[in-house]
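Protein 1 of 2
SEQ + STRUCT:
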Amino acid sequence: MIPDPDEQVLVDVRAPLREMIFPFLETIVITGVLWIVIGWFDAADAGRYGVGPLRLPPEWRNGFVYLWVMLVLWRFVLPLLRKRRRRMVVTDRRIIFRADGFRARPRTLAMSAVTWAEKERGLLAVYLQDSDLPVYYSGLPKIRKIARMINDPLI
């Protein structure tokens, strides 16, 4: 995704962090529920709150801590890393786009093949010379600015 040294970079954007709102809220709920359970195990070990007769092995508490770590990694950290890999670079000669995911490879469009770009229903639509249908890019911030820079790179 590194442009050539003689290319001028016009736009370089990554996926916006607003896409992580629901995974963040989900992580808060997971943390709250599991740490309430872990606190209940701690209270049971101390013999408080009427749970003294129910003695559970300490491995159960450690298992819930491990479960919490795995859920936070699975539901927050991995999606964060995956989404932050989405990137678009617009240079004076080409458009380079890499989608979400760890295995995504960059796709390149030559600026000479692009006729027009615009925002359509929250997506960036790039119209090409050889096609009647546009190429759509989703999940990008500042779509109007990107379309303006594609249409008139001299701005």
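Protein 2 of 2
SEQ + STRUCT:
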Amino acid sequence: MFENVQVVLADDDPLNLDMLEKMLQNFECTLIKAGNGQEVIDAISAHPRVDLVVMDLNMPVLDGYEVLRRIKQNVHWHDIPVVVVTSDGKDVATVLELGANDFLAKPFNLCELRHRVMNQIRNKRLADFARNTNAILEMEVAKRTAALQQALAKSLQTEYEISLRLGRAAEFRDQETGSHLKCISQLSKRLGQLARIPEEQCEILYFASLLHDVGKIGIPDSILLKPGKLTPEEFGTMKEHTVIGGKIMSGARDYPVIEAGRIIALQHHEKWDGTGYPYGLKGDEIHIFARVVSIVDVFDALLTERVYKRAFTPEETSSIMMDESGKAFDPQLLELFFRHVDEFHTLQQGIHTDTLPNAGITEMIR
């Protein structure tokens, strides 16, 4: 037997109400009597866990049709089963259409009444159980999802931190790359956005681009810090920084930023026409991330003074880079870059003059 069952009995005839009450008095439930339709509504409002309504159709104030309509249209009540008591068979189709769950024809007997009431209460309790179970499951899923999201965020933050530290390792080897790293990171993300790379991928590009020169860790100081022009042999050694960077970050396919960093480190000196290094990749064989980084890398390098060169003017930089369209650079990507070159120049200058916020890990991970 179910516990704490509440049944509303409604009839404007006190004798009928008393008869219903006596027929159900051994049913181990709380019986709430109502003499008109409004009292039914009031009883449901006052007892939020009503399990069943048994009511006559012909009642004052609000008739059974209106009560049934209000119950079934109320988002909080529509699951309450309603058994309609009627002496006119013509009413059955109408009340079933309005949402009645069952009906009793007058005169009714005790056995039929008990079975119909029991069936409806059982259905109601099963529906409540299913709904409560679903709510509990949804809460558990929400908690597990939140925990997974927190774990993922922590994992990404750790990956970003590693990327930043690896990038800074190269910075310590080459003192000229400090603000250069910040430029590559911010300009790469912006060009990726303009190229309609999905925002999630732009975030990966933002951090992975920090790793483009991490392979310089393996280049001797005599070559890396040489103020003059490199000999062909020295330049051959310098080119190895791409392969070294790729090896440093190999075997990390489960870590999107590190894997993207590996690709960028390997490919950011490849050229659109296939004359780059280390593998001579051509056109779309070069990953879009590496094509983006190669443009902003050269852009910043040309505009920045180095121990071996002066800083070129924006006009000179544009001329030099446009001459390499379709040669060193993806022509469509380069054309897009120069359509927004003023924005990129403002970003680049702001970073090198410290008028933009320092892109430390706290600021970089938003």
